[in-house]
Every structure is written in C-alpha cells, then in structure tokens.
Amino acid sequence: MLDVADIVRRHGAAVRTVLGTRLLPSQARALRDLAACRTAACGGQLTQCTACVRQVYRYHSCRNRHCPKCGGDQAARWLTRHHARLLPCPHYLITVTLPAALRPLAFGHQAVIYGALLRCAAAALQTLAADPRYVGTSLGCLAVLHTWTRDLRYHPHVHLIVTAGGLSADRTRWVAPKHPAFLVPVRALSVLVRAKMCAAVTQAGLLEQVPAAVWTTPWVVHAQPAGDGARVLDYLARYLFRVAISNSRLEQIDEAQVTFRYRHTRTQTMRRVTLSGVEFLRRFLQHVLPRRCAKVRYYGLWSATRRADREHARTLLDRARAATTTATAVSATPTASSAVAPVCPLCHAGTLTVIALLRPLPRKVPPWPGHARGLPDRVAACMSHVSGRVCLPQGFNGDRSHHEAHESCVASRHVRPGPLGARHVRLVSQSSRTGHTRSNSNSTDRARISSNPGLCRGFARHESFIR
C-alpha cells in the first residue's frame, strides 16, 4: 500500500531545501516523525507465530497527530465516547469559513487565528440562539477545526455540531427551535462572526496586517440539518488524529510526481491530481498544526463544566430513543476491549506473541568504526526475570546485516541461556565487554538510558530496561 511516509523519505530533503527558514518547527517534526513511523527508528517488538513459528518484526508508530498511519485506535475511542454523549435530539452542522484575504495572516499566526475562529464561531452562534425569536437558550456545540480542501489546498474552516435546542432557564423542559426549517439565520450569523473576529484580531494587535475590505465583504457560513449527529461525528473522527489525506487515496508515487484522488464537493465525481513530490509535501505541511494548538473544543451543553446539565437534558428527552442511539453507536464502533491478538501475515493461521522488545534508534547516531561493515557498535539488552522478554540490541531492525551481527555475537559466547528458556544478551562494545544484566548493571549506562527522551513509553516501563 502506498504511504505518505514514502513521499517524505523521497522528497523530504528537497522540501526542506525549498522552504528553508520558512519551515516551522512543527512541520520539521512532522517530517521527521512520519519518516520514522513504524521503522526501526521507533523501536518495536519481535513477535513469533504460534502456528508456523516464524518471527515477524512489528515496529512502533510515531504517534504524531498528523500521521496517516497513526491514531486509528484513538479515533475509535473518541468516536465511541462521543456517540454515547450525543443527546437524542436533532442536530445541525454549521460550517464557518475564513476568508481568503485572512488566510496569510492565519498561517503566520496559527495559534491566535485558529483559536479565535473557534471561539468566535461558537460565541456568535450562542448569541443568536439566546434570542427568544430563534431558540431562547444555550445550545450544545462541538467545534472542530479543518484547514484543507480535498485537493490539499489551504482552506481554514470550522465545523460545528449543534443541538437543535437546549435546557430552559429553570431546567424543567427542553426548548426546541422556534422555526422548524432553520436553527438561526445564516446571514446574521455571518455578520456576527465577522464582527467578533474583527474584535479578536484587533485585541491581538494584528489589525494593521488585514485588508480593510475583509470586514465589509460577506463571510461564507453554511448550515444544514444533520439528523441525530452520528454521521457527522463519523466524518469528523476520520481526521481528528491525522490531517488532509489518507494513504488509501494515493494512487501513484515515483521519483518526481505524486498522484492522488479526491471526490469533488459539488459534482461528487472522482478526480485525480498529479503534483510534484515537493509540491505535495508543501501542501501537506500547510495543515500541520503548531504544538498545543487545539483542534476540538466544546461549548454550551457539550462543555465539561455542564456535564450535569447535559445528563439532565438527556432525561428530559425521549429515553427510548436515547437508549437506541447509544446502543447503535457503541456497537458500530470498535472499542479497545474488543482488540484481539494480531494474525500472522505469513501463514494467516496463527497469532503473533511478543518474544522481544526492540529499542528505538537514537535520532542522531554518531559515527563508529564498524558502521561500514554493517555491525552495530554495541549489543545492549537485558532479560526480565518476570516476563521472560528480551530487549534486543539498539539498531537491530531486522536487516540481514543486523541478523548477522547478532548471530556473530551469539557465536562469540556473549549470549547465554537465561531463565524461562529465553536468550540472555549481555552488553558488548568495542572498548569493553562488561556484563549488563538485571542483577549486575552498569550505573553509567542505567543513568544514560533513564534520561534518554527518545525512548518509547512502553519500553521505558519494561522492568528489565529501567532497572
């Protein structure tokens, strides 16, 4: 299957050269993490099939929130949790788009403008909903930030899932919208969002960088019924823990170009786009968010501070419909408890069991004499007397050269049988051959290992590694 990581490995150096100092730290980290995702650089596990007894290497993911291969389990858990939180009432989907004239400013001040867009869109909606002519109460609102079109162009906009109604002031009844055809007037919402954004930009001291025409032209705001909200949640969950594009949309990758497909919004027909590798990565990096920039926010009845009100509103609505909606949502979405052991990709009959943990490679490996011969500079591993798992050498990523290095280590009697029938690997270096076991560990190596931030959490928790 084609992968965005393959494009990063082929054209990452070129896009770094083209962007130069314009490459943001968050973008540089995304390139580094995507290139290392599910490779020996992230560490992993050595597993063995219960049927064919062959060994399979399974490497860890990078866990970057922009990686197309990561976040599937997080998205499933988020979707399950939020399906259960949906109130049994009609919902609306409202989309607020940032004008083109404001997008250069938004890209240069992402945390400020993105946060303001989320807040202003929700605040404008709540202001109109509080008007007795439309609803007369506060709504439940879930806001999600998107910055892309389907062909990866820069297009910041906010999707809001909104409850069609809310609790009355005395908390005794559910207040429905006064007009069955719409929730609030879209044109008034557009004007109010624009005014609130103008105030936010002014407060941030960025008003001089915005063309004056932005505050007089209409802003694009779209509203439509969303049923019970479940399908909209399904759509938004796809890109909560990744951005812009999935690997399944890639059709061709070569040394010069990248081809991917997308569905046109208006015609609903499939179209294909062919870009150079550098242009593809440039478009992709536009949607990498800065660190600690929230993509999802909750307002009104969806806020964490109003959890009691949300549950009280649920009791006031149709309980039978609430039970049906919750049961359907939970059964349709996989949960963490339903996870099963992975199936062997070689024989497709047995399951894989973990027999060893692989250490992640350091980000910057210093040169050493044996590198040209394909030999690791050291074989560092230790055996857990409790779990019987072996921590294999740093750099032992499944290549033939590393296998040969490991076998040569075994042949030189630096590997001896350990408890529970597993192999106990000792520390071997060119300068010294000091044993590194659980009972006889080197204090310098232990301090260096415990302070290494590049190690994965699962490996750091392993008892034989941290002791």
Structure keywords:
single chain; 467 residues; alpha+beta; 5-stranded antiparallel sheet; 14 helices; globular; disordered C terminus
Structure description:
- Helix 3 packs antiparallel against helix 10.
- The strands form six sheets. This protein has a five-stranded antiparallel β-sheet, with helices on both faces.
- Among the domains are: 187 residues, no CATH class; 100 residues, no CATH class.
- It is 33% helix and 19% strand.
- The protein is α+β, with helices and mostly antiparallel strands.
Task: Give a quick summary of the entry.
The protein is of the alpha+beta class and 467 residues long. It has 14 helices and 18 strands. The longest helix has 20 residues, at 110-129.
Strand content: 15-25%
Distance between the termini: 40 Å
Number of discrete helical segments: 14
Average of pLDDT: 77
Largest sheet: 5 strands, antiparallel
What is the number of strand segments? 18
State the helicity in percent bands. 25-40%
Q: Topology of this protein?
A:
Layout: H1 4-19, H2 25-36, E1 44-49, E2 55-59, H3 72-85, E3 91-97, H4 103-108, H5 110-129, E4 140-148, E5 154-163, E6 166-167, E7 174-175, H6 186-203, E8 221-225, H7 230-237, E9 250-253, E10 257-263, E11 270-276, H8 277-285, E12 296-300, H9 307-316, H10 319-332, E13 352-358, E14 378-379, E15 390-392, H11 400-411, E16 415-417, E17 423-425, E18 428-429, H12 443-450, H13 457-461, H14 463-466
Parallel strand pairs: 13-15
Antiparallel strand pairs: 1-2, 1-13, 3-5, 3-8, 4-5, 4-12, 6-7, 9-10, 10-11, 14-18, 16-17
